[in-house]
Write a structure and sequence with these properties.
Blueprint lengths: L13 H14 L12 H8 L3 H13 L3 E4 L3 E4 L9 H22 L3 H17 L5 H8 L4 H5 L15 H9 L9 H5 L9
Antiparallel strand pairs: 1-2
Helix pairs in contact: 1-3, 2-3, 5-6
């Protein structure tokens, strides 16, 4: 059984057909990591193509990390089915995947920043492995709430308690417009004048 075939009527160049055929055989698991490929000469004879064309394809696949050549032994598959796709195809599939994820996130009411924060938290949990509980790790990877990052501002409401935050309620008790605290030394000095003795 041949691992690939060449169509002489196809306007695609022979080397491109060879590369596409080998990548497709790996992607569909007809060729698996560790499988030995035919020699350049043998594949050229089987497909009735120039041996230089086969050598060019093997060299290109080796540069891409799809196959590896062991001197005096032969060429072997080194890529998994997922890695066998050409880079352009990989980029196209990644863009399509990201588009689907973002559409699903928007439907669920999440922003792109929410998705990125969730992915980072997931990566942090995954990289820790079994060293800690995932729940505790996920909690520590959660981004700070906006009010904690922005500093003092108008009173905010906590969604759980329904009441104002502690800093906002203490500011409300002190008066409508809380003034910044002045040091005791500053209170003793009249404005615009010399310090009291």
């Amino acid at each position: 059984m041949a691992i690939l075939s060449i169509d002489a009527r196809d306007p695609t160049p022979i080397y491109a057909q060879l590369e596409r055929g080998l990548r497709a055989a790996i992607a569909t698991s007809r060729l698996r990591p560790g499988d030995q490929l035919p020699t350049v000469r043998q594949l050229a004879v089987d497909l009735r193509v120039n041996a230089n064309t086969v050598a060019r394809v093997y060299a290109e696949l080796e540069r891409a990390g799809v196959i590896e050549t062991r001197r005096g032994v032969g060429s072997f598959i080194s890529a998994t089915p997922a890695q066998a796709h050409p880079p352009r195809d990989h980029d196209r599939r990644r863009r399509a995947f990201v588009t689907r994820v973002l559409a699903d996130a928007e439907t669920a009411g999440f922003t792109i920043d929410d998705v990125i924060a969730g992915l980072r938290a997931h990566r942090n949990v995954s990289s820790r492995g079994s060293t800690g509980s995932p729940r505790a790790s996920a909690g520590s990877a959660r981004p700070e709430p906006a009010e904690a990052r922005e500093g003092p501002g108008p009173p905010t409401r906590h969604p759980r308690s329904g009441g104002e935050s502690e800093s906002a309620s203490s500011a409300a008790r002190a008066g409508d417009s809380p003034e910044p605290k002045r040091s005791a030394r500053a209170k003793l000095q009249p404005r615009g004048g010399a310090p009291r003795q």
